Amino acid sequence: MDSQRSDDGKGYLVLVALMGAALVAWWWLPSVSVAPNRIVPGTGFSAGQVAGWPMALLASLPLLLTGWVALRAGQQRLSWLLGLVMLCLVGWPLWLLLATVQLVDPQLPQARVAIGAGMWLTLFLLLLALIELSTRMKLAAWRSWLLFLLPVAVLAACIPVGLDRLALWQEYQGRSDDFITAIGVHLLLVAATVVLSLMIGVGIALFVRRVPAMQRTVFSILNFLQTIPSLALFGLLLGPLAWLASHYAWLESLGVSGIGWAPALLALVAYSLLPMVRNTLVALEGVDEGVIEAARGMGMSRRQILQQVRLPLALPVLIEGIRITTVQAIGLTAVAALIGAGGLGRFIFQGLGQAATDLVLLGALPILIMALVADALLAGMARKLQPGLSPGAGT
Q1: What is the C-alpha to C-alpha distance for residues 50 and 47, in angstroms, rounded to an integer?
Q2: How far apart are CA 170 and CA 164, in angstroms?
Q3: Taking CA 242 as the corner, what is the angle to CA 269 and CA 260, rounded to the nearest 5 degrees?
Q4: Which of 19, 117, 335, 366 has a Cα at 20 to 30 A from 342?
Q5: CATH 1.10.3720.10 assigned to 176-384
Q6: How far apart (Å, rounded) are the C-alpha atoms in residues 59 and 255?
């Protein structure tokens, strides 16, 4: 009991520290920056400069109150803490709207508001607090997602009434068609990578189980592929693929060349094989031998044991390998934009070349969201498939 109280105290101190850091970010870092157009660098404004110090103090009261309640919190006060954190998250887009109304001259149609470091850091810390509270309260997965989506809905509702001057939104408006296409290309490359690496990885894992002497050699090759920097691997593939496309018309007709989707997909699959093979092998080897012996005693063949016993029991660990591969592929696909593969990475590199932070964010934020959603969905699936768990466990 004392140990549990000690752990609870440490957890609440984490919340206090998060709120303290959020207050520091709120008061000491720029809240927003305002620029008359896309070319001119923006001018930073602190929270007090946005709407006056009394309003900034009033806006920071939920952060102060959350930290104060966390200092005195017990299990029965978790709902209060969750409500306060949600109040802060809902107030985040409302403060952006207030900043836009206060600072943007309506006579300047090209003027824009960019989210400052203080606002970004405050949002990050509040989301960490929300994750901490959701875990402590053991909320169902769908409830946690609703909590995360609530501030997004408020942000979307604020766009028509003033937040259309938000620089990130204006970058999207100027590239909306390309943005949708880039998301589709990004997802397609990730899906193809995961499917191919799963097929090849399972095949390799089955092979090294059958021929244990080859295990060290296979893993040495896969480890070597992981050590090659992504840009270097793209460069190494450029020559061979260009040669193949020039000598085989059917490859060229498929769009295979030294740049584009082909080298990107090959490189992504090469990077994905190590976690996929390793997790598949661990999953297959981790099945209880007693269960396998019982299956043999029932007269099952080797193929039947694999398909009906070993693979179903190994599925939770196998999904963990798919989760790791998927999240890794989502991030690495951004780099593939450098060789003309498309995807959201194109906005990131365009933004870096133009020193346009919001254009970088237009590419980076969807990648982050994709990775978080894929991680949560596949981790939840793996938990549900764990033997002995009830259908509602892990939600």
Answers
A1: 5
A2: 7
A3: 50
A4: 117
A5: yes
A6: 55
Tell me: pLDDT of 391 over 60: no
H or E stretch covering 390: none
Q: What are phi and psi of 115, to 5 degrees?
A: -70, 125
Domain boundaries, the chain: 2-167, 176-384
pLDDT band at 307 (very low <50, low <70, confident <90, very high): confident
Element counts in the chain: helices (H) and strands (E): 17, 3
Under the banding of pLDDT at 50, 70 and 90, the label for residue 108 is confident
pLDDT value at residue 76: 64
Q: Reduced to 3 states, what is the DSSP secondary structure of residue 329?
A: helix
The tokens for 256 are 């295979």
Which CA distances in Å does 377 have to 6, 239, 271, 327, 374?
A: 32, 38, 22, 11, 5
Average of pLDDT values for 49-60?
90
Look-up: residue for tokens 């008359």?
Answer: 36
pLDDT tens for 266-305 read 999 999 999 899 988 888 887 777 877 787 778 787 778 7
The single-letter code of the amino acid at 29 is L
- Binning the chain into helix, strand and coil, the percentages to the nearest 5 are 80, 5, 15
How many angstroms separate the CA atoms of 328 and 274, rounded? 11
Question: Does the pLDDT at position 7 exceed 70?
Answer: no
CA distance 115 to 34: 9
Q: pLDDT tens digits, residue range 204-245?
A: 998 988 888 888 999 999 999 888 888 788 888 888 888 887
d(CA 253, CA 259): 14
Buried b / exposed e over 250-263, threshold 16 CB at 10 Å, is eeeeeebbbbbbbb
The secondary structure of residue 20, as a DSSP letter, is: H
Burial of residue 312 (number of CB atoms within 10 Å: 0-12, 13-18, 19+)? middle
CA gap 351, 347 in Å, rounded: 6
